[in-house]
User: Fold these one by one.
Assistant:
Number 1:
Amino acid sequence: MAGSVNKVILIGNLGADPEIRRTQDGRPIANLRIATSETWRDKATGERREKTEWHRVVIFNEGLCRVAEQYLKKGAKVYIEGSLQTRKWQDQQGQDRYSTEVVLQGFNSVLTMLDGRGEGGGGGGGGYDQGGGDDFGASGPGPSRERRPAPAASSRRDDLDDDIPF
Amino acid sequence: MAGSVNKVILIGNLGADPEIRRTQDGRPIANLRIATSETWRDKATGERREKTEWHRVVIFNEGLCRVAEQYLKKGAKVYIEGSLQTRKWQDQQGQDRYSTEVVLQGFNSVLTMLDGRGEGGGGGGGGYDQGGGDDFGASGPGPSRERRPAPAASSRRDDLDDDIPF
Amino acid sequence: MAGSVNKVILIGNLGADPEIRRTQDGRPIANLRIATSETWRDKATGERREKTEWHRVVIFNEGLCRVAEQYLKKGAKVYIEGSLQTRKWQDQQGQDRYSTEVVLQGFNSVLTMLDGRGEGGGGGGGGYDQGGGDDFGASGPGPSRERRPAPAASSRRDDLDDDIPF
Amino acid sequence: MAGSVNKVILIGNLGADPEIRRTQDGRPIANLRIATSETWRDKATGERREKTEWHRVVIFNEGLCRVAEQYLKKGAKVYIEGSLQTRKWQDQQGQDRYSTEVVLQGFNSVLTMLDGRGEGGGGGGGGYDQGGGDDFGASGPGPSRERRPAPAASSRRDDLDDDIPF
DNA sequence: TTTT
DNA sequence: TTTT
């Protein structure tokens, strides 16, 4: 269908360390559990309430799997951009079941760590296992020709500047 | 949890007319089925492939329910902004089941029709039942104090209106 | 800065045909003018008002430039995903000026046509020059290893399905 | 124009404390300067490069102004959701100038603090002046009829609350 | 002017 | 079940 968009944006915390598995041909797949929550004040009682929503996030993108494996830990806060997919499976009684996941796959995916890196180190709290602190595009931390800004921002459109922008 | 975001953005087509139900206290709830799809060319065979994803959308917002009821029909193309929610229910065997939906509720929701209105009239294609063609914020088509431009809108922008944009 | 996001999402109409230029080394750059507008009812007078906002969109991505050149025309409705950039330049008096643009560059960009294709043909209305109707990711219409869904959706995670999803 | 979307999503850090002004009729307006940046590795030299982008954010929403005033400080990391607006003004020579801003106004705006609150206390670093740590919808921290979960929330989700998420 |  |  022309003109279709399927996008999910989450900011939340990992409920557990990432689970990394591999396909038969060796490609990694990372599974995350991410909690988002909203708080509001009950209009009747006036008390503060909170509702937490849990999301299944599946990462097929190899670079982002590597990021998840190396840097993410239970408790880490992340920014996620992916798409919604519902997958069909059979339970042990052979009945159809459906599971909806936020899938990070291909160019249209983002995984960014929002925690300061210093959190780690001592103790059991959330955070990262190590350094980290970068944000990674779809292709992971590697070099990416496309990821760079326009070649030399100032000069990048000099050839076009006969045009007065505003 | 502080600093949480849970947002879904869809552009797709309705697979069926909206279903409108009412709560016991009379508030409307609209259910939509929306299809998004992506197409790509198979690298091996070179042929064009397509994968369609179906989304359950539930509208609790009264104004947007009204919009859905009045203007949306099977086939209509819409822009949707809502949040992800997974709901638990019991099947007839008493087993726990889960259903994930895109929920439009509260201020943080958008439903916008993307079809030109002229589509209607002749033929069986998709589109709207009537006029339509506006985009509606969370509070629906009614007047909305918040929807207006900036408080000092006039002083900020009136002078722009005689400006030729490009 | 770790954990940074800079994203703009627009749905609007082209105010003019795209302008395509080329850098000295031959890469295309497309410039679009896109209008978005919001309508509201004036709370004082009760009359319906509308405010149009004009956006400068610059496409550095080659594939998306090709799409813009081939398929977009004045009046076409598009979905745009890019990032905000402010660029400095000197006016004829040598004074610093700034221009803010929505930039489509790299993997994190989307340009999707939202018009049905049939619009074209007769007359001067908006629409596309030709067929079109597809949506294009950052890499344009060409084959893209990443763009495909998971290999054979149904089987794609069979090796993982010892896990009961919910 | 029907079917229009104008949305900006930023995650970045405040370059300075918020500036709060008031309109003649006493409504607050907050101005923020927010930096986003992206990093990449130069393919030629192999060295790590960074490019920072500065954004002007203007908050007309009263509740969010209050949040900005009370909780945000230079260095704080925030999630912002607003819309793009270009405003015309005259410089001292009477020449037309344009300034593009990210505007938070009305229901379609979000300002969420992403820093852990503990940052504060000792030292000069960024962070908040006080507690904070909540995320605020368009209407700010006050009670909001719309912000609550679905009308029939209890029947939809109360049974979830004794559920162990994973 | 921020942040890493 | 939609759409192209």
Note: The beta strands of chain B are 5-14, 19-22, 28-41, 48-59, 77-90, 96-104, 110-113, 135-136.
Number 2:
Amino acid sequence: MDTKCDAGNWSVDAYLRGCASRTVLEALANKWTCLLIDALRHGPLRFGVLRRKLDGITQKSLTQTLRVMERDGIVIRTVYPTIPPRVEYELSDLGRSVAGLMEGVKRWSEEHVDEILTAREAYDLRAQEEPRPVPVA
Amino acid sequence: MDTKCDAGNWSVDAYLRGCASRTVLEALANKWTCLLIDALRHGPLRFGVLRRKLDGITQKSLTQTLRVMERDGIVIRTVYPTIPPRVEYELSDLGRSVAGLMEGVKRWSEEHVDEILTAREAYDLRAQEEPRPVPVA
DNA sequence: CGGTATCCGCTGCGATACTG
DNA sequence: CAGTATCGCAGCGGATACCG
């Protein structure tokens, strides 16, 4: 018997509410997590470098997100006992195994931003004029 | 001059706060969006089917998420004027172009759930015993 | 069936201040 | 430099009720 999901006989399936893989999906499906994994693809980076690279992130969000990723075994945190202090974050093997996917999501966003913006404008324009189609004839 | 980001001369880069591709990334980096795109990979599905498939989603969240995806041109909503009403959602070409990525994220979550759970246990155990390493010798 | 409308509790997140 | 601690508000998501 397994404990990844809470009901008796089942399969690992993120569609299921109780399945632990759902929590993994939730951890990945986060803009900061996605950008952090992508940012760390080419090697370790310091906290301050990450903060500047992820434009707009607060120190608190960065710390929190990195902590969750460290707990999940996605990143490795290394403290160098120097003055001033120096902390580096790098992807673990596990983290590297998902980095391609996260890079893909980021790149897709950048490559299709024009189509999305166009779709949004068209939708908003239609929403002004026509009322939204409602079920029932 | 372009309008995808708000500063003058720049590149499309989701790392930048003002860049429109950041909003696209935010739209994708959402557990329900990810699962919905994956669920619709093999063809149109009705609202009620989706609600049952995405275990734990509320009607409100499902409606909201689908609306955003429709606005972004990821899904197409079709109303059949029958009684009882019937509304189907399907991926657009744009949506299909990102479906592989979303399937990958879902599958990665399922395939690595064991490693993640083990990492979490180890982390939580360490957190009880050792105090967290702090910067500065 | 597939919504919309409303209320509402919780927490996620930003802002700020402080520390080893 | 890389955090931690605290406060306070906005917004999200759940619960419920109603509708075409």
Note: Chain A has a mean pLDDT of 90.
